[in-house]
Amino acid sequence: MTSALLPAMAEALRRRSRSSFVAAFGCIPCRPMWQNADAILTAAGEIENRLGAIEVWVNNAMCAVLAPFRAMTHDEFRRVTEVTYLGYVNGTRAALALMTPRDRGVIIQVGSALAYRSIPLQSAYCGAKAAIRGFTDAVRTELMHENSGVSIAMVQMPGLNTPQFEWARNKFAWAMRPVPPVFQPEVAAQAIFNVARRPVRELWVGSSTIQSIIGQFLFPGFLDRLMVKKAWEGQMTRRLNADDRQDYLEQPVSGLHKTHGRFSSEAKYRATAITSGVPGKALLGGAAAAGLLLAKWFISRKKR
């Protein structure tokens, strides 16, 4: 097994006495700027020269600002969009440049329930995730038109117990958190691995993701009102930020490269996952039927 690591992550592994891991699994550091298409193409070529053909490419570039939209500056919004959205666009372009001539390969976009159901205080990130979904759907149809052997999939994730909320830019005085329920990153890793082995159009991971996607199709207005309280207060904690807190918006933060965040006491190690194919359609159809029956029941009560 071989993989490429950003320099900061490779260095973090070495500092944590895991240099044997880096060597054993053939990890090499590379330094692409995800918003720079040429830099990613160069890094991809270097990886293939040193490790061999890239068969699976996982896009997961991201950064975030935790704040109301009007509290964000233009530069902050632009930075989140460039890294998160254009990072996926440029990564996909590089992957296709290598995979298309061989007519094989799998591109996996690490998505989020927020690609379907946005929440307050993460407008730039939600917008980028929704844009990634639209972009991926467009590229998929182009590959289908070409009868390409390259697959492109999207894995929609729930809230995960990663360091994201420890190093994202936070404009509140108190620490933030993912909206519960929270899942361990091993859940995400297993889902991505499964899709790499057996590509699907989309995989929805976690009951909260499934509920958000189906709910957005059926009751978008209700979810708007629900998010006003649940997602706003659900991201707050009573813990104040440290005075010397750093964030990763403009440059890497050292010392926080770890697998798990600070929510391990509540994070789950297992999650339901369904594809957007037949299982997802069946569940969506069942939810729609239940919604119609519920609406009919309310109407009949009003007529009495």
Automatic annotation (TrEMBL):
GO terms for cellular component: membrane. InterPro entries: NAD(P)-bd_dom_sf (IPR036291), Sc_DH/Rdtase_CS (IPR020904), SDR_fam (IPR002347). Keywords: Oxidoreductase. This is 3-oxoacyl-ACP reductase. GO terms for molecular function: 3alpha-hydroxy bile acid-CoA-ester 3-dehydrogenase activity. It holds the Pfam family adh_short. The gene is baiA1. Belongs to the short-chain dehydrogenases/reductases (SDR) family. Its EC number is 1.1.1.395.
